[in-house]
Amino acid sequence: MGRLSGEYRVHFQHPLRRVLPWVLLPPLLVLGGWGLYQAGYAVGSDFQISARDEARDLKRRVTTLERENRRLLQRNAHLERDQLIAAEAAERLRESVHDMESRYRAMEEELTFYRSIVSPENVESGLQIHSVTLEPSARGGEYVYRVVLTQIRGSGVVEGTMQLMVTGRQGGSTVELQGVDLGDVDEGHAFGFRYFQNLEGRIRVPSGVTPRSLRVLARTEGERPREVEQDLAWDAALTTKGRR
Q1: Do 128 and 209 fall into the same domain?
Q2: Do the record's keywords include Transmembrane helix (predicted)?
Q3: Which of 27, 77, 100, 153 could form a disulfide with 125 if both were Cys (CB 3.0 to 4.6 A apart)?
Q4: Higher pLDDT, 119 or 178
Q5: Single pTM value for the model
């Protein structure tokens, strides 16, 4: 109640006006929160669905890539196996060709050798020295010799002895070695054949001697003895294998 003089005014308010805001505020807050929750849930659901779809697509791509990778690995393994088989086949083919070429060359050499015996050109009849080779052995100063003797236009058996002589240098002097000097206790290599014979043995050059040449001397026995000889430079007598 105010004063009637006009200095004060008295206002009357209904009691609900003070209580109503506090009554309405909680429901409004609840409704606002629920709305925000629903909006967030909707956005989150959309994002979750999108992420799930993307994960499913990625999984399908990974599965496809793994399948393709396995296929490529299998193909690579097959190619490597085919390449290995082809390489082995090519190597066997090269070996076969090399073997055939070697056999062909050997047959040609053998044929040439037989022709030189059966139908020689400008060669005197009788005993001949066809070839001489030397090859170093594993023991120092020791050599393996191979001498092929032939009989040209002969029908009977020819017999005799073959000897080797080595000429070299020792201490500034020339020396000639033969027989026991070369370790040949038999003083020669006996032979006996109708058409040809391969003679093989070993000689040993004494330490300190530098060989320069080799002489091969073959003598036949009988009523009409025959002697043939052949001189070779030492390096010429050594085989290609021996010179390495």
Answers
A1: yes
A2: yes
A3: 153
A4: 178
A5: 0.54
